[in-house]
Amino acid sequence: MTETESAIEITEELRGMLGDDALAVQKQYEAFYQWMITEGKNPRRAQALGESTAGNYLDRIDQLHRFVLTYLDPDDPTVITDDHADELLWLIDRAEITQQNRSNKGEEYGENSKRKFANALQKYFQWQYHEGSMEYVWESKIDFSDVQGESAYRFTYRELGLLFDESASHGSLPAYYETSIEEREKINGIVAQRLGIPKDEVTRSDWQQADWSRHVHSLVTVAYDAGLAPIEVANAEVPWYDPQTKTLTIPTEYACKERDKERVGLSDEAAEALSEWLQERRHREKYDGSNKIWLNRNGNPYQSGSLCNLIRKLCEKAGVKTEGRKVVWYSLRQTMGRNVTDEGELSEANDQLRHSRLATTQENYNQTPTEKLRARLNETRRKARRSAEDHEYNPYEESTRSNDSQVTSSSSQPVSVSNRFGGAVSQATQPSIHIDVEIPDTTEARVDIAKEILGDDPTEQGRSFNPSD
């Protein structure tokens, strides 16, 4: 064994996961590294990679090997196969495998990082091909590049509404006969509360009737309002919520990134759902001794992969398309940021997203919703059709009149206008004007009422007025 080979060590984490197989993997990676620094750049011309570059490839393969053992449960834990590679890159691209380091834990990998994972796998399989253990050179099925990749899908308003509706009806109680006597006693309290009946009268049929929970509804609506990243869902604790002010405080040390802003507001619906869930969770046995707001069915904090699966499952049940779209947990945050930016001020979205800089919000979330764009396009087509049919029609003049008009109504019902004479002046949408008011029988009074109706100078309105009429 050369000095270079002996310096190559798999990580202690991978070694612990492999157990007795660690030595075999260690030798395999030593051979891979030696190949890279002798001919790995161009095997046909025996051109070598630099040791630093080879070391980077090896570090990523070590990490990907750990991903295989964690997420794929392989038959042979000592190798990464081409099928493993395809599955890993798909999971990474769908944010079901996320960043592991503390500062960005739970964040989706950037496009550049995804590309580097794919390149490391390609180099690994290139080595296996030249060593004769593979019959073809593997290539990634996903084309990663240095440019900005596909961002999380942003829901339309209709899709978001369907998603909220589905989350409100989602969730169920444990099976009646699968619970212990102690747990059944606690859940009887939940059933009694939901149905408004005495706890000692609860039966198995009542369980079926009360088979809903605020768990998922509170999780989805609060995550949307607060823009919670997966790691923030996992870290969320009961004291973060203030029901009096309907706010959620995400301490920066528990956020996915260091943020100067920690406090965000919740909508009435999200606050109500969260308050009801916090009441309900008191009766759940798995929350005994835990301050976490949400735990998964196994009593553990949520991970990014399970949250992505949950949001896609809700979409499928709600009839929201997921195929061909990058529907991930971050879709909720992305949708909220776009909607608040469009409906309100940029500063409001900046605060709710907890961004430090307005430029970040402007760059990533200043996008017009598709429904609004569709309505604008429909309006341009209407004007185009009318322009083709009527040569006298000026679409720009129509816009000006619409902007200048203070009263917009397609109805022919009269609009009441107050005046200093105390009477009622009714003006229909037609050119005619009807006045129902008593005025002194003088020329001055007639001039005054004319000014009330037509403006200070009747001649500016394009019509003449004779006070003696």
From TrEMBL:
GO biological process: DNA integration; DNA recombination
Sequence segments annotated as region (Disordered): 379-441
Species annotation: Halorubrum vacuolatum
UniProt feature, compositional bias: Basic and acidic residues: 379-401
Domain of life: Archaea
Name of the protein this chain belongs to: Phage integrase family protein
Alphabetically ordered keywords of this record: DNA recombination
InterPro entries: DNA_brk_join_enz, Integrase-like_cat_sf, Integrase_catalytic
GO MF term (any one): DNA binding
Biased composition (Low complexity): 402-420
Domain Tyr recombinase: 192-378
